[in-house]
């Protein structure tokens, strides 16, 4: 038969004949030795047929070959090949042989566990059991299998045992490594499928050590022959059981040699030679008296390294052969076959590490950095939490704390593969840095920018189109704001939606809302987002606030935030507060603390690093663990330092690592890895140290642009060249955009080389060097901020030249304004504050323009950061020192905004607007206005409006006069403020604004607001024909806003006025609610928290009164309450609590979260709102007497307050009248109740004429109750039906249910129980659709009551 396994007979007959002949040949060779036991001969007779084709379950056909011939075939294939092909064949052969060796070891282990080996002689074991001729190899004929995978089984002939192998791929490469070896490892599962040995007989694992050593040695002999192909010289071997004293070896000599081998740990080949030469007189097991010297015995096994065998495999076999030395065997000798099996499996799992001879020491010792060790539990916890987030859609957070170097980053990165497998987005935020002032928020926003790239590259065109549409639907007119915050969004959204003008600054609140909306669109169940923030201890409050906004979003985002931080290097009060805030929003948090890794995992890491078997590394690992407490980074650095000083060295002769344990133990190192790293850096040349020190001043990374600019200066001319050299020394790496230290501790060590007294000067000199490169240049932002950061770090004490001082002020001002535009107000405030502090005492006279800009921009950055008082003081300083009104206008406008936001200072905002308008030449009263003057001015304004048509306004030119624009701006501010401060003046002031607009005959962005505000006050004046005129003017202003290219920052204000006062008479209330919702979202995006709060409050009122589903409304209220709480919107927060209380009561089955929270605020507006919602709630809960009581309180309020919003007045009138009608039969003051009903009907009739959709059903319902009280039952029933139909057509589920309920009560009273039953069932369905469980239960009670009455009546009748 041919020795090549691919050459098979062409026919089945030929194959069978050849295989039978080959089988007989193998049997004959396997039976050599007449002294073999009868038991083994019996077993041998049942051996498998060699060369026979067999069918394995669920597998292709295999070919069984004798091991010896198979081995020779593997060696002979490469003889006639060229060098490249030969190397590949040798490599393939090596993988196959290791696979077979592993299978043989498993077979022998099975044999030794079930057969007492002591009953066999040494020769029987060696020549019969542990013989190449006792094994056959099963090879698959599937040519598509990878190298080494063709071996699918191994058979042991005597005793007959069959082992099949299931092989799966195994990758030992770290997923984040830049490169990965081409050689694929494999996991091999060995399965014993047939045996003549009884599995019921299992011997003890505690076999004598000498017997285990004998088995290991014989296995080593077998492997040596398998891999070398050379038969050993026919010599006798020493007995591993022999006694040392019988050979004349003293106890002192043994102890001395034992101590020697344990002190110096090395690969065993040289130890073995030394020991053999020390004891040349050992005798054999036989009785021969003149044994050859043992050094000659050793030479009978030719070193496998000399034959080109990989060192790891060679040492493995040598360690097996060392077992013949018994007590004197080196520590590296195997103690059992199980240990050898483990090492053979390692060879298969990672052939690139063990079977490829690439012993470049620098390449070898980098292995340990790319793999995670000792964190399996934590790794599984991360995966479990991610799966929970992906499956539930609920945001969660994981925070990982621990010492530097403990593996926090590696642990987080281990989740990447799982996220990628599920289709999620794994987003890494650049490391936060203590030295880069602007880095925290910019790093986080750059992560969202990278997320856009991931979305673009991982989705199909169809999905990208869907995402684009969702972004447009979510952000609408403010899509351009999203693109301003996250620039790469421009690649996802059409440019038509992002090229819009913007004038408002985007503050922290709007930034949070923008990020929330973006994450909500991008994330999904199929695409969850994992956002990783490294070194969270350096995050500022703005960055933490954005993370909190993302996590607390309950409107459909699917995000897992993972933050890592050092919990031992500085205080974490901000983080503790941050964690508490997250918990307060019911976001699940998992906190993980990392210490050092266990010693076994540390041993595995060092073994992988040195590319040796873990068992060989244990003595060294034990000492390293004691020195480093298991810190992975510290341990690797310690190992590298030992290698650098040759305490651990690689022996080219033995091709293995050697170390002196005494020297390692004597190393006097600190517990801080900085000691090692500092020593390593100081050993570098001076230019390299200087470059690393300069780079360390920039933090963990320094951009390529900065390096380029610094390299163009005389002092740092060789910086780039030197940093490039540092890349090869494993201090830094480069990704093309920046140079980065490989670990933050490396940067700390380099930075620590600068003495504390020199650091300020060092930073200052770097900054000034960069400053010379950017003056008058359009430079990169990285260079600008690097320059100013270093100059500021040095401090003003180092600035001696006045011209330099002014230049530095301008740089700080430029940096602050840039950061404000990118919404980083915290850092912007820092730069601007520095700029202001550097101005001289005579700043207003010597540097007027610079002082004006510094004060104003600092105030503009201060109030979003919460420094309200500082902002006011700065603005008042500008007003005091500015030389003209034009220079003060922006300051006045910002001061009004700051006063307005505080709300308690809203009266100051009013007075400021009045003051500025007077300075601009407007004639305005401080408080009271003559009624005749008011009537006259309103009539004049109405007359002017009648002359204009909508198109006439659109044809007017744009306003370009600064004074006129300022007047329009402050009238706009005044109209909002006066609504709260001076309601009696509001009509007059708004009319003055509209008159000014009409008289100027020009338009600007404030013109639509003037038109809509005037129409709103007209609608508020009374429910009469004035509303029709107001609606016409309001529509004119609304059309102007949408049809002209005007700034969208006025839209929230215009929509608030129109849909709050006008739209309620022209649009369905549900549509009004939706428009207020959109206006609120836009206002938040624009940073106008006040308009956002007003629109949100009105939206919720319209939604509640419009019959929105209560459960949906509850979720929306909760999400907006979280937003209000985050951004300290106290007014909105209180109002939302009231809405939440009402909704929870109406839903039922739960308790309200608060009790009349608005009663604590001494604001009349809030008091009116409180009465309104108590009346609404009491009406639907059936507490009519309480409604009447609260209505009296509401009526006691000032008429102007009650009429401030006509729709609230109409609804309160309806609720009061309906409660009076319901209570009429039980109440005592019937005349007053009748009068309440009459007044209410009159008001509702007028309202229904204006909007049948919103008010007709209310009039019909109240009229039906009034007719019922008058005993006009037929008319009443008809009117009830009309009310029910009207409510249904307007989609008012709650009011349809109320009409059915009251109609049912009416029919029950007149004895029409069947109709009452029907109506109560209808009411129950309506309340169920509304989401009110408490009303559903009430209707169930009514239904049971009617059933009881009907049954009682039936019994009485019978």
From TrEMBL:
Species in which this protein is naturally found: Cyclotella cryptica
Name recorded for this polypeptide: Orc1-like AAA ATPase domain-containing protein
Region of interest (Disordered), ranges: 1-24
Residue ranges of domain Orc1-like AAA ATPase in the record: 371-562
A Pfam family: AAA_16
Superkingdom assignment: Eukaryota
């Amino acid at each position: 038969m041919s020795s090549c396994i691919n050459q098979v007979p062409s026919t089945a007959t030929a194959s069978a004949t050849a295989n039978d002949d080959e089988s007989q040949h193998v049997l004959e060779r396997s039976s050599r030795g007449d002294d073999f036991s009868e038991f083994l001969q019996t077993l041998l007779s049942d051996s498998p047929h060699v060369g026979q084709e067999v069918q394995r379950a669920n597998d292709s056909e295999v070919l069984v070959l004798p091991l010896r011939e198979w081995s020779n075939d593997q060696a002979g294939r490469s003889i006639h090949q060229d060098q490249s092909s030969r190397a590949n064949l040798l490599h393939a052969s090596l993988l196959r042989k290791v696979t077979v060796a592993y299978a043989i070891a498993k077979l022998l282990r099975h044999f030794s566990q079930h057969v007492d080996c002591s009953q066999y002689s040494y020769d029987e074991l060696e020549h019969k059991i542990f013989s190449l001729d006792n094994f056959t190899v099963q090879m698959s004929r599937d040519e598509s299998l990878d190298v080494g995978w063709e071996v699918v089984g191994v058979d042991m002939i005597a005793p007959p045992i069959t082992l099949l192998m299931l092989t799966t791929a195994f990758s030992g490469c770290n997923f984040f490594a830049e490169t990965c070896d081409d050689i694929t490892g494999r996991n091999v599962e060995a399965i014993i499928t047939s045996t003549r040995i009884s599995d019921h007989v299992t011997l003890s694992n505690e076999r004598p050590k000498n017997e285990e050593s004998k088995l290991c040695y014989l296995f080593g002999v077998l492997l040596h022959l398998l891999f070398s192909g050379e038969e050993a010289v026919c010599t006798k071997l020493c007995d591993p059981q022999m006694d040392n004293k019988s050979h004349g070896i003293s106890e002192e000599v043994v102890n001395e040699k034992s101590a020697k081998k344990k002190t110096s740990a090395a690969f065993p080949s040289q130890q073995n030679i030394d020991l053999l030469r020390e004891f040349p007189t050992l005798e054999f097991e036989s009785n021969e008296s003149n044994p050859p010297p043992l050094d000659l015995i050793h030479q009978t096994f030719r070193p496998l390294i000399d034959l080109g065998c990989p060192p790891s495999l060679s040492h493995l076999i040598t360690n097996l052969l060392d077992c013949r030395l018994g007590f004197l065997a080196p520590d590296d000798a195997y103690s059992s076959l199980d240990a050898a099996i483990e090492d053979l499996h390692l060879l298969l799992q990672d052939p690139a590490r063990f079977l490829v001879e690439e012993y470049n020491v620098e390449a070898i010792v980098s292995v340990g950095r790319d793999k995670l060790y000792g964190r399996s539990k934590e790794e599984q916890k991360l995966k479990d939490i991610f799966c929970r987030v992906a499956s539930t859609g609920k945001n969660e957070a994981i925070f990982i704390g621990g010492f530097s170097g403990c593996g926090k980053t590696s642990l987080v990165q281990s989740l990447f593969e799982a996220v990628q497998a599920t289709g999620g987005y794994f987003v890494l935020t650049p490391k936060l840095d203590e030295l880069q002032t602007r880095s925290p928020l910019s790093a986080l926003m750059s992560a969202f920018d990278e997320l856009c790239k991931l979305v673009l590259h991982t989705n199909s065109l169809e999905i990208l189109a869907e995402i684009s549409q969702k972004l447009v639907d979510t952000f609408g007119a403010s899509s351009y704001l999203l693109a301003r915050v996250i620039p790469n969004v421009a690649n996802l959204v059409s440019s038509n939606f992002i090229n819009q003008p913007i004038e408002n600054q985007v503050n922290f609140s709007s930034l949070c809302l923008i990020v929330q909306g973006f994450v909500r669109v991008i994330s999904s169940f199929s695409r969850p987002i994992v956002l990783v923030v490294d070194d969270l201890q350096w995050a500022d409050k703005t960055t933490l606030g954005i993370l909190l906004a993302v996590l607390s979003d309950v409107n459909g985002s699917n995000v897992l935030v993972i933050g890592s931080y050092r919990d031992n290097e500085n205080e974490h009060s901000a983080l503790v507060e941050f964690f508490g805030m997250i918990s307060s929003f019911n976001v699940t948090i998992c906190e993980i603390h990392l210490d050092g890794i266990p010693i076994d995992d540390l041993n595995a890491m060092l073994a992988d690093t040195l590319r040796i078997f873990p068992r060989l590394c244990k003595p060294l690992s034990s000492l390293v663990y004691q020195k480093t407490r298991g810190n992975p980074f510290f341990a690797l650095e310690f190992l590298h330092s030992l290698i650098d000083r040759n305490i651990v060295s690689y022996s080219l002769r033995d091709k293995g690592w050697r170390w002196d344990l005494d020297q390692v133990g004597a190393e006097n190192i600190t517990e801080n890895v900085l000691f090692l790293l500092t020593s390593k850096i100081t050993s570098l040349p001076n230019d390299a140290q200087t470059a690393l020190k300069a780079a360390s001043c920039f933090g963990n990374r320094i951009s390529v642009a900065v390096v380029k600019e610094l390299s163009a200066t005389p002092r740092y001319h060789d910086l780039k060249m030197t940093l490039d050299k540092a890349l090869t020394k494993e201090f830094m790496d480069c990704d093309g955009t920046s140079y980065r230290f490989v670990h933050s501790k490396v940067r700390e060590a380099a930075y620590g080389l600068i003495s504390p007294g020199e650091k300020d000067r060092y930073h200052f000199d770097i900054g000034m060097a960069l400053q010379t490169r950017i003056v008058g240049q359009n430079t990169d932002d990285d260079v600008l901020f690097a320059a100013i950061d270093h100059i500021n770090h040095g401090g003003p004490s180092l600035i001696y030249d006045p011209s330099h001082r002014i230049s530095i002020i301008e740089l700080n001002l430029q940096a602050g304004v840039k950061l404000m535009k990118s919404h980083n107000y915290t850092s912007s405030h820092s730069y601007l504050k520095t700029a202001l502090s550097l101005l001289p005492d005579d700043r207003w006279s010597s540097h007027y323009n610079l002082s004006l800009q510094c004060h104003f921009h600092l105030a503009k950055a201060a109030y979003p950061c919460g420094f309200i008082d500082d902002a006011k003081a700065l603005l008042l300083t500008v007003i005091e020192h500015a030389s003209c009104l034009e220079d003060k206008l922006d300051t006045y406008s910002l001061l009004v905004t700051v006063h307005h936001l505080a709300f308690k200072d809203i009266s100051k905002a009013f007075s400021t607007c009045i003051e500025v308008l007077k300075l601009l030449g407007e004639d305005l009263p401080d408080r009271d206005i003559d009624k005749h003057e008011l009537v006259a001015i309103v009539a004049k304004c109405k007359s002017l409006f009648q002359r204009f048509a909508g198109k006439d306004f659109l044809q007017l030119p744009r306003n370009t006069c600064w004074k006129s624009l300022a007047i329009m701006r402050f009238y706009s501010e005044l109209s909002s403020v006066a609504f709260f401060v001076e309601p009696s003046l509001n009509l007059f002031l708004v009319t003055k604004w509209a008159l000014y607009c009409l008289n100027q005959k020009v338009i600007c962005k404030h013109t639509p607001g003037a038109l809509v505000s005037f129409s709103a006050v007209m609608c508020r004046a009374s429910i009469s024909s004035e509303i029709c005129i107001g609606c016409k003017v309001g529509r004119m202003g609304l059309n102007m806003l949408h049809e002209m290219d005007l700034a969208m920052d006025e839209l929230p204000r215009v929509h608030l006025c129109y849909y709050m006062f006008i739209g309620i008479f022209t649009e369905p209330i549900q549509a009004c609610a939706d428009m207020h919702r959109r206006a609120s979202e836009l206002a938040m995006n624009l940073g106008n928290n006040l308009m956002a709060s007003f629109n949100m409050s009105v939206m919720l009122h319209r939604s509640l009164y419009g019959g929105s589903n209560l459960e949906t409304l509850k979720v929306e209220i909760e999400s907006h309450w979280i937003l209000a709480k985050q951004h300290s919107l106290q007014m909105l927060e209180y109002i939302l609590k009231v809405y939440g209380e009402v909704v929870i009561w109406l839903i039922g089955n739960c308790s309200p979260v608060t009790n009349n929270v608005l009663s604590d605020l001494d604001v009349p507006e809030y008091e009116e709102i409180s009465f309104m919602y108590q009346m609404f709630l009491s009406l639907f809960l059936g507490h009519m007497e309480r409604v009447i009581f609260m209505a009296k309180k509401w009526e006691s309020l000032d008429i102007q307050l009650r009429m401030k919003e006509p729709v609230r007045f109409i609804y309160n009138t309806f609720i009061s009248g309906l409660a009076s009608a319901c209570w009429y039969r039980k109440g005592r003051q019937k005349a007053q109740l009748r009068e309440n009903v009459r007044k209410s009907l009159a008001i509702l009739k007028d309202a229904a004429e204006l909007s049948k959709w919103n008010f007709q059903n209310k009039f019909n319902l109240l009229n039906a109750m009034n007719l019922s009280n008058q005993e006009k039952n037929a008319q009443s029933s008809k009117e009830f039906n009309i009310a029910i139909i009207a409510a249904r057509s307007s989609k008012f589920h709650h009011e349809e249910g109320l009409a059915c309920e009251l109609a049912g009560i009416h029919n029950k009273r007149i004895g029409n129980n069947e109709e009452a039953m029907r109506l109560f069932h209808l009411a129950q369905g309506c309340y169920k659709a509304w989401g009110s469980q408490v009303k559903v239960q009430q209707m169930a009670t009514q239904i049971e009551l009617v059933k009881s009455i009907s049954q009682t009546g039936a019994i009485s009748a019978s």
